[in-house]
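Recall that a protein's primary structure is simply its ordered list of amino acids. Everything else, from secondary elements to tertiary packing, is in principle encoded there. The following example makes that idea concrete.
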Amino acid sequence: AFTIGSEINKTTAAFYDAQSALGVYGKDTAAFVKQVGEFSIATGADLNDSINSATKALKAFGLETSYTKQLLESNARTVQVGITTFRELDKVQTEYAGAAKGAGQSVDTANKVFAAFTSIAKDSVSAATMTKTAFEGLTQKGTIEGLKRIGISLYDSNGNMRDMSKILEEVSGKFSKMTPKQIDEIINKIGGPEGLRNLFVKLKTGSEDFFKTLQAFDNSSFDLTKALKNAQGDITVLGGIVRNRWNVV
């Protein structure tokens, strides 16, 4: 708590939650809480919300705690380009994380698809549900066969699922050479859950802003060390850190 400059009771709760959720103890817990604590100061997110989100996301994505920094920086980029907040992302990320993992997608791909959905969904909860069902529908038989008919394979030469954003770029390219009737026939043949259908409809009616969000995610950057340094330069943030350290002493 002193090192981070966080409130002692929140830090104690963070330790307990991290140990319970991840099964790590001692120095491993300290390193995890420190990273998430610095992230919360750098971004203005609540420490305990961030701990809760990070632990659940790591488990859902099947990642070790050594990937915590990558996860946090990916989340920051999601908030930068998507129509969402850290608090909202903390609450909904686990909605689509497991489905993304099941479809063989990375944290970045899962987050960028969610960020893109926030531009067409009514809120972050709806965007997360769309993202989840899009990933669930990706590996269904109808999707595999439907895309194969137009010359798109979901798997690489080694039998691994390809990056979804690359697949969507190819689908968009194929759609651009078809009539609306032909596209509708393909979408109806594929079927699948709502999120997947919404995704294909978006590629049919106007994919520019969707891909603009994906590209913005790829082009954005977030350096936790720099962000923390910038935040500590803010007098209000610095005052809170000093006050918390004094209380710890």
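The two ends are 10 Å apart (CA to CA). Residues 154 and 162 are 6 Å apart (CA to CA).
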